User: What shape does this take?
Amino acid sequence: MQVQLNGEGREIPNGWTVSDLLADLRIESRYCAVELNRKVMPREQHASCSLKSGDEIEVVTLVGGG
Amino acid sequence: MTVLPADKPLVLGNHVLTSRLIVGTGKYSTLELMQQCLEASGSEVITVAVRRERLVDASGRNILDFIDLKRYTILPNTAGCFNVEDAVRVARLGREILRGLENPGADWVKLEVLADTRTLLPDPVATVEACRELVADGFQVLCYTSDDPITARRLKQAGATSVMPAGSPIGSGQGILNPNNIRICLEYLKENDPDYPVIVDAGVGTASDVAFAMELGCDGVLLNTAIASARDPLRMAVAMKQACESGRHAVLSGRIPKKLYATASSPTEGVITRALG
Assistant: This one.
């Protein structure tokens, strides 16, 4: 199925959870936050939250800034 | 060594700080240099930005590997946001990351809602609205704003933990362009509330700008570019630390009034020369 990940279309298997996606991206989940359809998805729910076709996902981290 | 009575701490909501200098982590040529400069600045609070993960090169080094999370309180900003919704989203994402890291910075945000890419001046109306929304959501909001005293007052009324007027545009290095406006901000914000914290955020070019901000009576200074883009950032970090302390000592000491004519420092009695006609 197709989702929007950080503003770009991406094909992922049906039934994937947020955790599956982060693992596939090899992202250090400790350092990131996930937003699903413009709402923060708390990390405790990453493993249980199944993604749906058309979902908009943002994965962010901290960078240098003023 | 002279021992002075301890200064009162800088209290920002439930954060109690000894250092009155807050520094950013952007624009450093290397993360190692950033780390050394943070240490040299003596700051306890450091600002960071929230950005999309680079999905292409996720193995790249993360800034968090270079920040001692036990030592520093992280202050996430909403830089790059040009409307209320985005600023609120970014603040919540920053909080989510810091909660996961168990950093005390999870309860606050440096709110920036910008209006214009060229000047990076804040949108005062959107900043007030975003501040209200974030306060309602439980954030302690430190508000970047212009030096306009009326907006400053509105932000305090909206529940801002601290109002942070810019000395001059972000990264411009122009220092404090309108000290009178900063003075009026201080007067308005501290009226019947002398401990309300006011921090100069943005515009600092060199150490004397920091000292001047503190001498005006500001409670702290937030800066980034002036250290990170100096020819020798490490030495400038030391200069900023000392300037912040010097300015604070000066304002606590009380400057002498300015007078038009000279007053001799040496005794006028007992001079062996003849008096001037």
